[in-house]
Amino acid sequence: MRSNYTEPKPPHGSAEWLAARWQNAKGEKRVTASVAAAVHGQHRFVTMADLAVELLAPEPPQPKPQNDAMKRGTVLEGPLLTWASEIMGTHIVEPDVLFAYEEPGVRLLSTLDGVSEGLHVYEVKTYNKRWQGQLPDYWYWQGVQQAICADVPSITWVVFDSQLELHFFTQTVSSDERQAHIDKVRQFLSYIDMGMIPPDADPTYENATRLHPEGHGESVELDASVYDTLERMALAREQKRQAEAVEEQCKGELAMLLGAAEYGTVDGTTVVTWKNQKRTTFDAKAFEAEHPALYAKFKKETTLRSMRITAKEAK
User: Where are the alpha helices (H) located in the chain, listed in sequence order?
Assistant: First the structure.
């Protein structure tokens, strides 16, 4: 049974907002529009494994400091919607609800930037490149999911680009595009619901560390095929060591050529710099020696897992 519905939207970026995006009222994990492309392996910043690990974690994500791009988008979103309203001759407002879509095995959620009368949906983006009139893949799938959740035929993109120009792009979403996304989300969530990472996701060491932050002393029997992985890892480490040695040699040659100069030029064009940088560090040992009680009060213990390869050679 298919269902479109809305629910109250907590303050944007808050812990409550992140928790609402992470799971529905039944405690079932869901996919949000901003990471919709990840289930297709087409998100610029979030891999399928990243999304899987986030949804498989025991607790929802917590608020984090915004990077410069996120701050830019947050600060400019309101003024850009106002500007868009003036250009298009319509009143665009930020909705106070989240838009959701569910059917068996599929749970989608979208936070919409703006809507106008008749539920026309607007998505605002600040773009650090010149707009060429084509949606990046990770925007495209976001638009498809927003159209599904809001139950609308199209999304209007409001793009403020690096030329300080405001552009409008209408993304019409077909029934085939909707179904393709729904099918992919269903496949992805079927593994999440079983507590598993999808087989076509490639988890990194960081992903694994987040999912299994602490060891508990047990031993697990591995298949002999793991020796292939150990050999690839050993080869990668040796290649990394050799590459770092070459890098150090090149840096040494350049540094000797520059000497006390901070800039190196070729035909008047700067090709290398070697500038002074000041760094402030905290002397923890000296502080502990002079203020042991205060040091102990603020000392924080963190458990980290360290991987060591103990096999001497592959069998």
Answer: 15-22, 48-56, 68-88, 137-150, 175-193, 205-211, 226-258, 284-290, 292-298
Neighbour count for residue 28 (Cβ, 10 Å): 13
Residue found by looking up tokens 């070729």 in the block: 266
- pTM (predicted TM-score): 0.82
DSSP per-residue letters across 177-213: HHHHHHHHHHHHHHHHHTT---TT----HHHHHHHS-
CA 196 – CA 174 distance, rounded (Å): 31
Can you state the percent helix, strand and coil of the chain, rounding each to 5?
40, 20, 40
Q: Which amino acid is at 124?
A: V
Question: Distance between CA 305 and CA 223 in Å, rounded?
Answer: 22
Compute CA distances 18 → 29, 61, 87, 268, whole Å: 12, 6, 33, 51
Instruction: Chunk the chain into consecutive blocks of 10 residues (it has 315) and report each block's average pLDDT, rounded to whole numbers.
Output: 91 93 96 97 96 95 82 85 94 95 97 94 94 95 98 96 95 98 98 96 93 89 93 94 97 96 96 94 91 89 86 58
Residue 44 carries which DSSP code? S
For residue 106 the two structure tokens come to 């599929």
C-alpha torsion sign, points 95, 97, 102, 106:
positive
- End-to-end CA distance of the chain, in Å? 54
What does the alpha-carbon distance between residue 166 and residue 158 come to, in Å, rounded to a whole number? 7
For residue 201, which of 11, 54, 79 has the smallest C-alpha distance? 54
Q: Which residues pair with 126 in a beta bridge?
A: 160
